[in-house]
Structure formats: C-alpha cells, structure tokens
Amino acid sequence: MNQKKERGLWELYLKDPEKADAEIWGRKAEPFSRRGFLKRTGLTAMALTIGSYIPFFRNMPSGMIPLAIADSNQDKIIKGKEEITVLNDRPVNVEPSAHLLDDDFTPKEKHFVRNNGLPPEVEDDPNQWTISIDGEVHKPLKLNLEEIKKKFKHHTYALQLECGGNGRAGYYPPAKGNQWKFGAVGCAKYTGARLKDILEAAGLKDSAVYTGYYGADLHLSGDPEKVSISRGTPIPKALDDHTLIAWDMNSEPLPHLHGFPLRIVTPGWPASTSPKWLKKIWVRDRIHDGQKMSSYRVPKFPVKPGSHVSVEDMAIIESMPVKSLITNPQTGGSIPQGNLFDIRGHAWAGDRYVKEVHVSYDFGATWKKAKLDNPINQYAWQNWKVSIQLPKKGYYEVWARATDSEGVMQPMVVPGWNPKGYLNNAMHRIAVTAF
Ligand SMILES: Nc1nc2c(c(=O)[nH]1)N[C@H]1C(S)=C(S)[C@@H](COP(=O)(O)O)O[C@H]1N2
Ligand SMILES: [Mo]
After folding, report:
1. Ligand 1 pocket, 230 CB below 6 A?
2. 90, 185, 230, 330: most buried, per Cβ within 10 A?
3. Using a 6 Å cutoff on CB, does residue 258 contact ligand 1?
4. Same domain, 185 and 306
5. Do residue 183 and residue 233 come from a single domain?
6. Are 239 and 370 contained in the same domain?
C-alpha cells in the first residue's frame, strides 16, 4: 500500500471506522491479539491499534510490533512492593515497570525480588546471625554479624544487580521461568565488608578456585534437606573490591525480601551469584556444583531457536552484557509536538563501563548521542539524558542503545536464542504520542 493510500485510510478511519475496516479487511476488524497482529502488519492496521498516525512508519522494521502499551493486570500485591508487578507469589518474584526505576539509586519499594525458595524466618537480633567459611582455607571461620561489623572495614557502594533472566519474556519459543520484561534490575547502595577481607582472614589455600554460597531459605517443597539455589563465582571475582558481604541497603538494614540480615553482592554478574540470607561460604577446589550451577548457562555457539543443548555445550554466565533502560517518560505518554523534552535513563555493562548511549525516535534511522554520566563507583549504573523534539503529531517510539567500553553495542532485536532465556539485552523501546 502506498503512503497516500495508507494516509487516506487513516483519515477515513477517523471519520468512519467501520467503512475503513471494510476497506482494509473486507469485513469487520477484529480486536488484535499479539499473534493476529503479526499476521496483519501494514501501517493502517498498526495505526488503528495504536489510535494515531505514525510519521516515521517508513523506517519501521517490518514485522516489529509497536508497543501496544502496558498489560498490567495487577491482581496480587506484595507488602512493601505495592507499586510493582507480581509475576509469582510463591516463590515471590516481582518486577517494576521501567519508569519506576527512574531514581539514581533504587529504593527498596521498587527493587525487583527474585526468590527461588521460601525466605527463612529471621530473629529480630541480627547480630547473632552466624556464617561459616570453610573448604579450601587455612583457618575455617565462624563469624556472627556483630563480629563482622567490628573486625572488618566497612564500605558503601552503589551496585547494580540484574537477574540473568531479565528480558526472558522477549524470547521465542519462550523459555520456562519468570517472564521478566525489563525490570529485573536495580542499583541500590549497599554497605558491608569486602568479601575479600573475610576470605583473606580465613586464608585461601592455593587449591581455592571457586566459591559456593548457601543461604538459609527453604526449598519450595519445605524439605529442609533440599537446597533451592547455591551458586558461586571464580575466586578472582570473589576478591573484587566491590564484592561485598552486605548488611545495609540504602543505609537501612537489608529488607527481609532482599536477604536480611546478610547477603553477598556480586555486582555485574547474574544476581543469582548474590546469595541472600547468607549462611555459608564453601571455598571449592573446583567449579562449584551446587543447586542451579548448571542452569545459569548459555550455549557456547549460536543455536537454532527451540533446540535442545546439552550441559557440556553450555558455558556458565559471568559478566552481564551491556544494557540500558529508558526510565522517563513512561511508555504510552503523550507530549506536545515541537516541544523539547528530556529522555533519560540508566545504562550498565556488567564488569565493563558504558561508553556511549544513543537515542532514536525514527525507528533507528537517525541517532542522537545522550549525555552520559560516569558511574559513582565501578558497578553502579550510569545515568544518561538527552533532549528531543518530536517534529509533528503522531505515534513515535523512542529507542535507546548503549555501547560498552569495548565497543560492544546492544542489539536492536532479541539476541541469540538460548534454552533458558538469559541475557536478553535488546534495546529498550518506549511508545510516545505527540499531540
Ligand atoms: N538465598 C537466596 N539467594 C538468592 C536467591 C534465592 O532464591 N535465595 N535468588 C537469586 C536470584 S536468581 C536473584 S536474581 C537475586 C535477586 O535479588 P533481589 O531479590 O534482592 O533483587 O537473588 C539471588 N540470591
Ligand atoms: Mo535471578
């Protein structure tokens, strides 16, 4: 269909929707489902769904679905996380929409929660909470929180935590597990001791290669013999200055859902390596083989979507890939045409830094460089912002893409499929209408 005809149909639709429908489909239009929509692309179909003309429609990648706005059917609420979407309440898994992550440091009310099991009951006096450090160490230790606070230097860093499965909802065929969209990420300020200082107090043997972490949460079955999750990292990551045994989040004791009274924060790596309700650190002479160590893996080579990949052909995920989020405005908003307005958000890149962020509002035809801040410390996300002006009335999408310090950029579409749906760092898009 040519542009003139498309536009004509759109104008007809505004005057007489039934007649326009009849011209487009030869019958009454049906409400669009996500799937039905894919079959009937074409400008008018899209515009009808969105309810607005699309000035840059010629640039739209074919088959790309415009963001037809939030499907928030909030029927469950978790106390202390009232604003954010509940994916599951047993175990608790909640995620905020992107615009709720606008703060420089994520408040506890808006930080996602990912539980694999049932949080333990914790007594009110956290000082007696005891952890053990054993395995490949010269001096196995048992330390309670009071001793940890007294013996080791305190450090506060803003640290970015992202679930390895953030973005899983974008994969097709779908992977099992929580269908996270964009919100399984946060950057809060954590206060604690360096894990490094504690491991050094225990004295690592030459045979130490990996950590194995255990939390006090209960397996979903309630069986105390079963472990819901036990992950770890190679020793060099555990010795990073920013890997903390943390007791405070944003200058308050860790909330119960985030691991009160003690958790490890391994920033920049899948957040599954940041155990909550920490009880034990087992220093291993081999790659840890705890519960879920074999799950957080991706194929070593590209695979056909939907295929089975054996564990030997998968590699354990380490640093998370470069990614960005548009936190303002909220998707679905409207803005006066021709007015300058701010687009802003955060960007992060696992163990790397973010070098540049670019924004497009014409479906990727042109890009504008954003002003990007340095992180307040390594592993904090970086804030960015840019002013744009939408040239005329209609529907737009704002896309953001970050490039890391090694020159690696976010993909425009969902990256290589993997069986568990990890590491989707496709660009974030929001829908904006100019009036
Ligand atoms: N003990 C324990 N630690 C855990 C988990 C868990 O289920 N139990 N989930 C992990 C996963 S998969 C993620 S993504 C992060 C989520 O941290 P948050 O709930 O504080 O956001 O915690 C990690 N630490
Ligand atoms: Mo996770």
Report:
1. no
2. 185
3. yes
4. yes
5. yes
6. no
pLDDT at 334 over 80: yes
Ligand 1 proximity of 243 Cβ (cutoff 6 Å): no
Q: Is 113 in the pocket of ligand 1 (CB under 6 A)?
A: yes
Angle, in degrees to the nearest 10, between helices 3-15 and 43-50? 30
Check pLDDT > 80 for residue 412.
yes
Residue 291 located in a structural domain: yes
272 lines ligand 1 (CB under 6 A): yes
The finding on whether 229 has its CB within 6 A of some atom of ligand 1 is yes
- The residue to mutate among 105, 229, 245, 266, having the most atoms of ligand 1 within 8 angstroms of its beta carbon, is 229
Which residues, including other chains, have CB under 8 Å from residue 172's CB and lie 6 or more apart? 305, 414, 417
Cα of 258 vs centre of ligand 2, distance in Å, is 12
Average pLDDT over residues 214-218: 95
Q: Are residues 299 and 268 in the same domain?
A: yes
- Residue 1: its pLDDT value, please? 45
Residue whose Cα lies nearest atom 20 of ligand 1: it is 258
Domain of 41, in residue numbers: 3-64
pLDDT of 35:
39
Q: Please say which residue of 270, 289, 316 terminates a domain.
A: 316
Is the same domain home to 12 and 149?
no
Identify the domain boundary among 316, 337, 352.
Answer: 316
259-263: long-range contacts (C-beta < 8 A, 24 or more apart)? Answer: 259/215, 260/122, 260/126, 261/122, 261/126, 261/129, 261/145, 262/126, 262/129, 262/131, 262/145, 262/148, 262/192, 263/215
Within a domain: residue 341?
yes
Q: How does DSSP classify residue 37?
A: H
| Domain assignment of residue 368, yes or no | yes
Residues 117, 221, single domain; the answer is: yes
CB atoms within 10 A of CB 369: 11
What spacing in Å lies between the alpha carbon of 263 and ligand 1's midpoint? 9
**Nearest residue CA, atom 21 of ligand 1?**
113
Residues 121 and 246 in one domain: yes
Question: In the chain, what percentage of residues exceed pLDDT 90?
Answer: 72
Q: Tell me the CA–centroid distance for residue 11 and ligand 2, in Å.
A: 47
Query: What is the count of structural domains for the chain?
Result: 3
Q: Is residue 252 part of a domain?
A: yes
Atom of ligand 1 nearest to the CA of 186: 21
Q: 332 by DSSP, 3-state: which? A: coil
Do 230 and 133 touch, CB atoms closer than 8 A? Answer: no
Share of the chain above pLDDT 70, in %: 83
